[in-house]
Design a protein that fits this description.
The complex is a heterodimer of chains A (102) and B (464). By secondary structure, chain A is an all-alpha fold. Chain A has five helices and no strands. The relative contact order of chain A is 0.11. Chain B is α/β, with parallel strands linked by helices. Chain B folds into three domains: 1-59; 83-269, no CATH class; 282-458, TPP-binding domain (Rossmann fold, 3-Layer(aba) Sandwich). Chain B has 18 helices and six strands. In chain B, helix 1 (3-27) runs parallel beside helix 9. In chain B, 54% of the residues are buried. The chains are: A mainly alpha (102), B alpha/beta (464). At the A-B interface, helix 1, helix 2, helix 3 and helix 4 of A face helix 1, helix 2, helix 3, helix 4 and helix 5 of B.
Chain lengths: 102, 464
């Protein structure tokens, strides 16, 4: 297991800058949906858990399978719950005026 | 399908997912495009998960499928949570995210030990420490918000030293593991100690600090996921984690600024500590003017402009639907109604906006602090519903006030102020509010929901 730390650091740094620029523009009106959406996106960690459970291991495979499956459950509940509630919240935000009647 | 084709395919799903995630957050910036943002996020997620399942080495689909199904079954009710429960639901989802990261990190360690290079062990430790403390910290926050745990801050002497000491020990153990990754008996310590730290960290946090703390935990959850991306060498995970970390960080900074407090002050200086000193200062309270629903309704009916300032009290009383009826009734009479929302009103960033949107109040009526403060001096009536400290003029003028310097909604500049409040008890920060003793202030004593209901009846409105 080797880690290309330098490349990863560059990727992390660039993503953090993009994150700052993009999220700074989110109106305070939508800060709650913002948090639930980023939470759902963060659950992409499920990908790591799937690989962990799916691949065959020589030693300690049983432990990895059990912990990994719990991890999949936790992350999937965040994906499903997070997207669901974000969309429910956003559907409630309506503008006033003529647009409302259409 | 040959393995190299599969690999290209998997990598392209990850690449597209990354782009969709960034677009998702970009589209969230405005309410008109926000739902497209959710769709982009869902599509990216679906692509990445399907792409991962194409991985050639996967032999164990049964466990994966059961995990995905069970997770979806738990996720649906969490996604259908009532809007008033959104803060605790959010805290709970931070805990789940952190749990996933911690479990994967721990498994990676036990699979790879003793063959773990120092750099990998370093990021792996970061992942596990951040993940574990976020897990218990978020569970504690959710418990306090759901009121299964006492909401009052619990403080004791030397608390900060104990907490920092715990964290220090965990980091020291991690450092030993970096040098000696074969010492597996030490690994439970870098899970266990941060688990305890997470609990200790939230014990001194009071209700009014929850918006900052939830944002901070959000940031930690993101950073731990990014660390997991470093360990697994997954760029997609690093980027998603960095975006989440940045989002939580921006929100925490916003919240701290809105309370005029530094980060460390929120984490290490429980607000509740200031309470005895502040309470001791108030001797015989000056008289206040109170009014009945009839009197208050008459004043509202005579107004041209009304600004409603909601706070956590409105959420507790579930008064948002009655507030919408009041707003509709006043609007029908030709009165201009707007809402002034303080960044830390409620228990998480944007909490009030979601509740008012749920009650069908159009979002263009919801103005944030800077916008509404420009209008308050020309406002006839400012109606404060269940908000306290965010309207305290002492924050502007009284340098001895614990909240001195905190930006507030200048409701005291309106021509008449009405405050719906259960009793004269102090707010969460335990600080007396001079607003209540002004000549232009009318106190409307009662439950927010029933009082607003009475106002609507007096004004001859109501739909149901």
């Amino acid at each position: 297991m080797k880690v290309d730390l330098v490349t990863s650091l560059y990727v992390f740094m660039l993503a953090a800058f993009i994150g700052f620029e993009v999220i700074r523009r989110v109106s305070p009106l939508l800060h709650t949906p913002l948090m639930s959406l980023t939470n759902a996106l963060d659950a992409i960690a499920v990908v790591g858990a799937i690989i962990l459970v799916g691949l065959p291991h020589e030693h300690g495979g049983r432990l990895a399978k059990i912990l990994g499956t719990i991890a999949i459950v936790a992350a999937t509940s965040n994906i499903v719950g997070g997207f669901l509630i974000t969309d429910r919240m956003l559907r409630m935000f309506k503008a006033s005026g003529p647009a409302k009647k259409s | 399908m040959t393995s190299s084709v599969a690999e290209y395919l998997i990598n392209s799903t990850y690449l597209i997912a990354t782009a969709l995630f960034i677009l998702s957050l970009k589209w969230l910036s405005s309410p008109t495009t926000a739902r497209r943002g959710v769709f982009a996020g869902e599509l990216g997620m679906l692509l990445a998960v399907v792409g991962t399942l194409l991985h050639q080495g996967i032999v164990e689909y049964k466990w994966i499928a059961s995990g995905l199904v069970l997770g979806a079954l738990i996720g649906v009710p969490l996604g259908r949570a009532a809007m008033s429960k959104v803060p605790q639901r959010t805290a709970l989802s931070h805990a789940f995210g952190a749990l996933c990261v911690t479990l994967v990190g721990a498994s990676e360690f036990y699979l790879k030990t003793p063959d773990v290079p120092p750099l990998t062990m370093g990021v792996l430790s970061t992942e596990v420490i951040l993940g574990s403390l976020t897990f218990t910290g978020s569970l504690m926050a959710a418990g306090k918000l759901q009121e299964v745990l006492p909401q009052r801050p619990i403080t004791y002497k030397g608390q900060n030293i104990v907490n920092l000491g715990l964290l220090g020990v965990a980091i020291a153990v991690a450092a030993v593991l970096v040098v000696h990754p074969e010492r597996t008996e030490l690994f439970p310590l870098i899970v266990g100690i941060p688990l305890v730290f997470g609990v200790m960290m939230i014990i001194p946090i009071g209700g009014a600090d929850m918006p900052t703390v939830i944002s901070l935990l959000n940031s930690y959850a993101g950073l731990s996921a990014a660390a997991m991306g470093f360990v697994l060498d997954s760029k997609l995970l690093i980027i998603a984690g960095a975006l989440d970390g940045a989002s939580g960080f921006i929100l925490s900074v916003n919240m701290s600024k809105a309370m005029n407090r530094s980060f460390s002050n929120v984490l290490f200086g429980a607000f509740g500590q200031e309470q005895p000193a502040a309470a001791a200062g108030g001797q015989a309270a000056p008289p206040v003017r109170s009014a009945t629903p009839e009197e208050a309704a008459a004043i509202l009916a005579a107004a041209n402009t009304v600004v409603i300032v909601p706070g956590y009290g409105m959420a507790v009383a579930q008064a948002q639907h009655k507030v919408r009826e009041l707003s509709d009734t006043l609007t029908k009479k030709g009165i201009d109604v707007k809402f002034g929302i303080h960044p830390v009103a409620g228990r998480m960033p944007g909490h009030m906006n979601v509740l008012l949107a749920e009650a069908d109040i159009p979002y263009d009526k919801l103005l944030d602090m800077d916008e509404i403060n420009g209008e308050l001096p020309q406002t006839d009536v400012a109606l404060v519903i269940g908000a306290n400290d965010v309207t305290n003029p002492g924050a502007r003028s009284d340098s001895s006030s614990p909240i001195y310097g905190m930006p507030i909604l200048d409701v005291d500049k309106a021509r008449t102020v009405m405050v719906i409040k259960r009793s004269m008890a102090a707010g969460f920060a335990g600080i007396d509010n001079p607003l209540y003793y002004l000549d232009k202030t009318l106190m409307l004593f009662g439950d927010a929901k029933s009082f607003v209901g009475a106002l609507v009846r007096e004004l001859g409105g109501g739909h149901e």
